[in-house]
Structure formats: C-alpha cells, structure tokens
C-alpha cells in the first residue's frame, strides 16, 4: 500500500475502485474485499442503502481487521459513502420525519434534507466503525424530479446548495474530508429537465469560501460515453478536471439501453434457436396452462388458477425487446418466486394423481422453455457484442474479451481518476487486478465511436 498523508488527493487512488453495491456481510464477500485491499485496491465506494447497511458493516469489519493486523493504516484507504435513498426499514423509519422526501413507492423514497443527511452520516460511521469518511456524496439528487409535480430547476439547485453547505459543516467537525455528488444524469449544462448541470454546481460552490466539493461520480462505459466527448471544445470530463475535481466513474460493464441492463461481457453460446421454436414452446405452454385451469375449475379448486400465468407472462415478455440480463433478472425476481408460491398453494390441497401429473408437466415445460429462452437471449446478446466490437478502431483485436476492452479503455481515458468495479466473486477481483497490471488498449477516441447505432 502507498503510505501517503491525508487528506487524500486523486494522485494516490488506485485506478480501479471496489464497488460494494452487491456486497454483503458474508465471510466470502469480506474475504474478497480483504484480498483486494491487500493487493493494492485502496478505493472503496459504498452507500447507506447498499444491502440496507450490510455493505458498510462488512467494510468496517474488514478495515478494522486489517488495521489490527498492521496490514494497513486507516490513511492508506479511501472510503466513500453516499446518502439520499431511503429503502425498506429506513424508509419506514424516516418517511414521516422529513417534509421534503420524494416518495418513489410504498417502500422507497429520496431525501437530501441536511438533517436527514446528518442522521445517515452518523449511522454510516457507526456501521463502518470509523471516525471519518474520506468523502461523502449526495446520491442521485436528480430523483427529485421523479413523482414530483412541483419540481423545478430553481428548487432543485437550492436543495443541493443547502445540502452542500451542511456537508461543509461536517468537514469542519472532521467527520468527512471532502464531499461531492453522484448522479446518473450529469451534463455540462441543463440540457434535460432532470439533468444535473456541472456548470450550475460550479456556480454554487464558488459561493462557498474554501469549499471542499472535490468529487463527482457518474456512469461511464462503452455505450454511455457522451461525457468524454468534446462539445464546444471541451468535454464534461475535461471541465471537471479543469476545476480540480476527482472524477470517479461507475457501471463500467453495466450499460443501460432503453432502460434495460446490457452487460459488457461475452457469453458462451453456440446454440442456434429460432423465433419460431420459441413461439412454439410458449404456445404449448399457454395451451397446457389453459388446460390445467379448466381441470382445476372442474375439480372446484379455484384458488391456484389466478397464479397459473407463467406462460402468459413469458408471452408478454417475448412480445417486447429485452436483453439477456433483463430476462435473467425476471426469472430470479418474478418467475421463480411465483413458482414457489404456486407450489406452496399446491401443497395445501389433496390433489389426485392426474392433476399432480399435469402440474409436473407444467413446471417441466416451463423449466425447458426458460432454458431455451436463456439460450435465445444469450445468442442475441453475443451477436450485439460482435457488432459492437466491429465499430471499434482497427487496432483493437476482436479476440480481446469485451470486458477487457472496456476496462482498459477507461484506464486510458484522460481525466478519469478511478473507475469502480462491482466485485463479489474471485474472478471479478482477478479480472480487475489483471487489468490494473496490463495495457491491451492504448486509447479510444470517444468522439469517433458510433457504438449505439450497432446496438439499436
């Protein structure tokens, strides 16, 4: 580890940081985090809402263990946390406490009220078992524009200014060293209703004497790369650099296309499945679903019928354009829980062998169809990856995995201080470390890329 005095600057951050969005307080995840820090990754990014605080607890456990073992000092690691989101128990606890919460659903909201930020900072430090954070970020303030009929730019930046003025008091207390903003909608100017203008933020902090606004965090990947493109002789990244801001990018391998997740990874898929084959499988399932509902009605067992919609939902899914990883998420979050619920209802009744046999056929056909659909969407995904690679400059070999191309390109993009990688498996860590050590890609001209055309 580099032994630098704090407060830290961009010069001593590892090029890749450890993103903890999916980090839990499990032994496996804590071991991976510990190995990453010991290998030289000294930037750790988290947030109060990551696994409802478990990510912060895990980080605190690992940091204290490494300090106790004299592997590191506190000053050798940069720990950033964020606040703004209220989810689950936190939302239930605070949704009536603060007047200016943006309510997103019955279980989620957003707030950057200074008193709320103070509460969240205190809880973060407690979970992390730390006296201070290197930086504290306002998380996605643009959510102010969601479900807010009275939203306007003037109020938006007024709230941000109040939050930044509060964070300045926390610098004076020593509980944070720097502060900043993490936003998915950063732009140089206010080009969209819900964008976050860097120029407006710079105007705000000019009014704060000796301010400690030092960090901005934003998505950046091979698909979403407009912030690196020069407009009017300067890019967003260059503007940030010119004002001495540390620029930390996130989602390097997780692009959003039409509000859907598109992972910048290659998938192994040699199976060729046609649209007609998929349509036949779904139609067979719809027929079996209808037959099973009729049988249950004849047997006067109506309670299960409303839940027998697996193939109906698959048919709806197939009628829209989705990505492989969106489909994978639907299986995990919707279809599998629905199957578990059907089985729990099924077990409440004393059904005869004929109905049991139909249910077994139903679940078996769904399982087969889901597997075939997974192959089908993988096939589409990999075709798009190949098309994406074809748009890259000739000096980049098509044989290089797309995730390597992605990580190497960020590493060589001017003005980026560090890029956060979500690391929850050993292979993720190995990939990050390998890409830290090697340079397969020299540079990319982001202005010349026409990647979006290949993917739409």
Model description:
This protein has 14 helices and 15 strands. With 456 residues, the protein is of the alpha/beta class. It has two domains: 268 residues, NADP-dependent oxidoreductase domain (TIM Barrel), CATH 3.20.20.100; 114 residues. The strands form four sheets. An eight-stranded parallel barrel has the order 1-2-3-7-8-11-12-15, surrounded by six helices. Helix 12 packs across helix 13. The relative contact order is 0.11.
Tell me what portion of residues adopts beta-strand conformation: 5-15%
Assign the structural class, choosing from mainly alpha, mainly beta, alpha/beta, alpha+beta, or little secondary structure. Answer: alpha/beta
Largest beta-sheet characterization: 8 strands, parallel, barrel
Order of helices and strands: EHEHEEHEEHEHEEEHEHEEEHHHHHEHH
Structural descriptors:
three-stranded antiparallel beta sheet, TIM Barrel, 15 strands, eight-stranded parallel β-barrel, 14% strand, disordered N terminus, alpha/beta, globular, 456 residues, 14 helices
């Amino acid at each position: 580890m580099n032994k630098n005095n704090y407060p830290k600057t961009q010069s001593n951050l590892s090029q890749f940081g450890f993103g903890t969005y999916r980090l839990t307080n499990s032994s496996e995840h804590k071991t991976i985090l510990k190995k990453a820090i010991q290998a030289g990754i000294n930037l750790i990014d988290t947030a109060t809402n990551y696994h409802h605080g478990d990510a912060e607890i895990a980080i605190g456990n690992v940091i204290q263990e490494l300090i106790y073992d004299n592997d590191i000092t506190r000053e050798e690691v940069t720990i950033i946390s964020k606040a703004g989101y209220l989810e689950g128990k936190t939302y239930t606890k605070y949704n009536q406490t603060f007047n200016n919460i943006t309510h997103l659903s019955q279980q989620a909201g957003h707030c950057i009220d200074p008193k709320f930020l103070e509460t969240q900072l205190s809880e973060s430090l407690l979970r992390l078992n730390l006296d201070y954070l290197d930086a504290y970020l306002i998380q996605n303030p643009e959510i102010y524009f969601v479900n807010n009929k009275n939203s306007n730019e003037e109020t938006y930046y007024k709230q941000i200014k109040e939050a930044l003025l509060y964070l300045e008091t926390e610098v004076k207390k020593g509980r944070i060293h720097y502060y900043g903003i993490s936003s998915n909608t950063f732009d140089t100017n206010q080009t969209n209703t819900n964008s976050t203008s860097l120029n407006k933020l710079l105007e705000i902090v000019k009014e704060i004497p000796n301010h400690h606004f030092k960090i901005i965090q934003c998505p950046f990947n091979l698909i979403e790369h407009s912030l690196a493109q020069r407009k009017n002789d300067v890019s967003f990244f260059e503007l940030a650099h010119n004002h001495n801001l540390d620029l930390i990018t996130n989602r390097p391998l997780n692009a959003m296309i039409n509000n859907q997740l598109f992972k910048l990874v290659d998938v192994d898929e040699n199976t060729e499945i046609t649209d007609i084959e998929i349509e036949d499988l779904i139609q067979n399932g719809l027929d079996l679903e209808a037959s099973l509902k009729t049988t249950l009605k004849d047997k006067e067992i109506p309670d299960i019928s409303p839940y027998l919609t697996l193939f109906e939902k698959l048919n709806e899914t197939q009628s829209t354009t989705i990505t492989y990883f969106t489909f994978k998420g639907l299986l995990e979050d919707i279809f599998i829980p629905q199957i578990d619920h059907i089985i729990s209802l099924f077990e409440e009744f004393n059904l005869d062998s004929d109905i049991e046999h139909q249910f077994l056929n139903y679940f078996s056909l769904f399982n087969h169809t889901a597997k075939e659909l997974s192959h089908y969407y993988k096939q589409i995904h990999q075709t798009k990856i190949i098309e994406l690679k074809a748009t890259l400059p000739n000096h980049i070999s098509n044989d290089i995995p797309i995730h390597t191309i992605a990580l190497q390109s960020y590493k060589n993009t001017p003005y980026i201080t560090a890029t956060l990688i979500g690391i929850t498996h050993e292979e993720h860590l190995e990939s990050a470390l390998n890409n830290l050590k090697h340079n397969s890609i020299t540079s990319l001209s982001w202005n010349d890329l026409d990647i979006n055309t290949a993917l739409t």
